Amino acid sequence: MYLLNWLTQAATASIKAAVPAASAPAAPPPTTATETATKSMTGPKIAIVVYSMYGHITKMSEAVKKGIEEAGGSVTVYQIAETLPQEVLTKMHAPEKSAFPIITPEELAKYDAFLMGIPTRFGNFPAQWKVFWDSTSGLWASGALAGKYAGAFVSTAATISTLTHHGVIFVPLGYSQAFGQLTNLSEVHGGSPWGAGTFAAADGSRQATALELEIATIQGKQFYGIVSKVKFN
Ligand SMILES: Cc1cc2nc3c(=O)[nH]c(=O)nc-3n(C[C@H](O)[C@H](O)[C@H](O)COP(=O)(O)O)c2cc1C
């Protein structure tokens, strides 16, 4: 029954996406040649989207952004909406949120490629990220994210499976650009061929190290190197 309701909802969203309501303004015309030319001159539209409660992922996102910019790209950083009430956040000793704008599913669909910053919750990604993805059935039904490229810093299998349903192409960090850093055994560090990562420590007191931030910057550069070669419509 639940599945039926959800599918009906998704199908309605799909029809809404395909057929604008009579009173709604006409849909914008398809991308013109000039727009396409401008886009290819300026490179792909990239977003970094983070959820960060204690600031570790926010810090990592700055390093990833630096990498994209050093590679010649530009990027906008967004955050996922908080779902916990302030009372709970206070009890969890969460500091004030960053000033990044809050992203909506419709906003995400405007980008060619995106990198997700994800902290861990009991071995999975946070409910805030799940709530965001659970509000994307309209995008899924219209295939709005299909063929886009995505990467993640601190990634989980659940994230990849969500991207798969949307037809988004996952870009792993791999080893080719960060072999020395990822295989460095002289110090404890986060990061894997899936993407950059950091360890916050049991009490959240550990901040990303120089090596972890270096890997995040390499990921930004490597991600831009791949998506800047793609011809987005
Ligand atoms: C409810 C909760 C569950 C968590 N579960 C895990 C976990 O399973 N594994 C882990 O390594 N860290 C876990 N953590 C610690 C988070 O990974 C850590 O707080 C987070 O990486 C900090 O990132 P942020 O400062 O960007 O929010 C958990 C934290 C909270 C609040």
From TrEMBL:
<dbReference type="InterPro" id="IPR008254">
    <property type="entry name" value="Flavodoxin/NO_synth"/>
</dbReference>
<comment type="similarity">
    <text>Belongs to the WrbA family.</text>
</comment>
<dbReference type="InterPro" id="IPR010089">
    <property type="entry name" value="Flavoprotein_WrbA-like"/>
</dbReference>
<protein>
    <submittedName>
        <fullName>1,4-benzoquinone reductase</fullName>
    </submittedName>
</protein>
<dbReference type="InterPro" id="IPR029039">
    <property type="entry name" value="Flavoprotein-like_sf"/>
</dbReference>
<dbReference type="GO" id="GO:0010181">
    <property type="term" value="F:FMN binding"/>
</dbReference>
<feature type="domain" description="Flavodoxin-like">
    <location>
        <begin position="46"/>
        <end position="223"/>
    </location>
</feature>
<dbReference type="GO" id="GO:0003955">
    <property type="term" value="F:NAD(P)H dehydrogenase (quinone) activity"/>
</dbReference>
<dbReference type="GO" id="GO:0016020">
    <property type="term" value="C:membrane"/>
</dbReference>
<dbReference type="Pfam" id="PF00258">
    <property type="entry name" value="Flavodoxin_1"/>
</dbReference>
